[in-house]
Amino acid sequence: MKVIRLFTLLALLAALGLFFFLDPIIVLFLAPFALLTLLYVAPVFPKTTNLRNLAGVKIFIIALVWAGISVLVPAMYTLLDFTDALWLEFIQRFLLVVVIMLPFEIRDLPYDPRELKTIPQQFGVRKTKIIGSLLLLFFVVLDIVKNTSESFEITSSIAIALVSGAFLWGASTTQPRYYCAFWVESIPVMWLTLYTLFDLIKN
After folding, report:
1. Exposure winner among 44, 135, 141, 201, fewest CB in 10 A?
2. How does DSSP assign 9-23, residue by residue?
3. Helix H segments across 1-124?
């Protein structure tokens, strides 16, 4: 915990330093996502300690913040138009993060209070994996629907969907210690690697 607190402090100091280089409009655009992140860990409602413990919404808050920070904020920063394709990209990112979170919820199934009403608690492990697989299918379909993706982008999306699906179906309540804490956590890095690799092959 001391190491985690140290890294958190360093990240906070770095964030505060970079904060002064941002345009005020970007800061205002970031504010809702920053507030959600704060309320995720800080007390918000009388009967819950924070948004993380609010029944049924935990992974959707995480996915919303991830998608907003990684798609909408960069688009605003680089003055991109908020086109239909951009919103589809936002939805894609939201779906992928939801699926990536499912192995964590499966892992924590024996320990999570029933009041959390996580997806595995409500539907069971097998149905959770089926739901996640359908979300991944939708994720890939949206890449095709966008009509702005090049072939290597679609290929990388299909590849990361398959990787994410494999980790989802391999998840269990007795998974190895680093299954989620390292391998599932590294899926975004895998996606970047695959995207760059397919781009290099294309060129």
Report:
1. 201
2. HHHHHHHHHHHTTS-
3. 2-19, 24-41, 58-67, 73-77, 84-107, 119-123
Q: Which H or E element spans position 163?
A: helix 151-170
DSSP SS3 for 45:
strand
- By the 8 A CB rule, do 69 and 100 touch? no
Residue 171: strand, helix, or coil: coil
Beta pairing partners, 42: none
DSSP 179: I
| DSSP structure class, residue 54 | S
Residues 141, 136: Cα–Cα separation, whole Å: 9
Name, in order, each residue with C-beta under 8 angstroms of 170's C-beta and a sequence gap of 6 or more: 103, 179
Please, which residues bridge with residue 45 across strands? 48
Q: Is 58 exposed, middle or buried (0-12, 13-18, 19+ CB in 10 A)?
A: buried
Contact in structure between 33 and 68 (CB atoms under 8 Å): yes
3-state secondary structure of 184: helix
Does this model's pTM top 0.90?
no
Q: Which two tokens stand for residue 163?
A: 């990787």
pLDDT value of residue 44: 61
| Nearest-angstrom CA–CA distance, 134 and 190 | 21
Find, among 190, 192, 172, the residue nearest to 182 by Cα.
190
